[in-house]
Amino acid sequence: MNKRSLLLVGSALLAGLVAPVWAQTAWPTRPVKLIVPYPPGGPVDQLARAIAPRLGEVLGQSIVVDNKAGASGTIGMDAAIKAEPDGYTFGFGVPGGITVLPHLQKMPYVVDEIQYVSLVARVPQVITVGPKVAATTLTELVAMAKKDPGSLNYGSAGNATTPHLGAELFAQEAGIKMVHVAYKGAAPAVTALLGGEIQVLAADLPAVLQFTARGVKILAVSGARRSEALPNVPTTAELGLPGVVSESNYGIIAAKGTPAAIVQKMQAALVSTLATPEVVSRIATMGAVAVSTTPDEYRKLMQQESVKWGAVVKKAKITLD
Q1: CATH class given for the domain over 124-246
Q2: Per-residue pLDDT for 12 more than 60?
């Protein structure tokens, strides 16, 4: 092989080594898909659309929201987790599909293979009662339930959803018995609460916030921090139930094998997006709190939540039947 041939071979090898690095640092060069595992118009979809425009500006490419609903969010999450790990498909991670359902059924994906990127929002859960319920405080509600065990019906957005488990956690910690009625989503559960079909509802704050004008009474925020949207509503910790901590944590996930450089760039873009006053304000109007994390912080939080909800599932003997 002559000198010219050696130079050509060497150049080709060098190009092969450099090209992937260049491709990663140049990412993204085309629109990025963000899979939302719930229907358009719902709280999770609204969160995604609250961050998408600004996130796209930071990255220099459009963020295309793609709704893939069904099976309690697992269809959309499965699509994101099993996507080509090239940095052009991300997903909205929903807590039920990571921390609850794996304790109840065989999952279509392996939770340990999720590539976490960053949290996007923390959504506090609240304990509410309907207009016809006499209780105006959580203490009064607990007293009613203890006086006549099983007389109160509580609803949820669905069997084994985080609001369902949040209500079970409240009942376990308060030492009360209530009857669970599962609905297909938060909207019909709120309708049942307004109509008196159920008396109690544990729900993500955005699902019930607008209905306080129609008589829904929010008795407590399930956690250690008061909500900025409800500064006068006490927390369960303040009311003597520090073990009742229930919130929905939503974030961005990707497929296993997504290049570290792309994950880092997306995470940095999310940090910037979630620090933008307009985005923070829009998320706050939903009753949620904008929050970013490192991938490792997000992963560890989900592991901790999985242990907690697994214990609740076991103690309450919850099944999907």
Answers
A1: alpha beta
A2: no
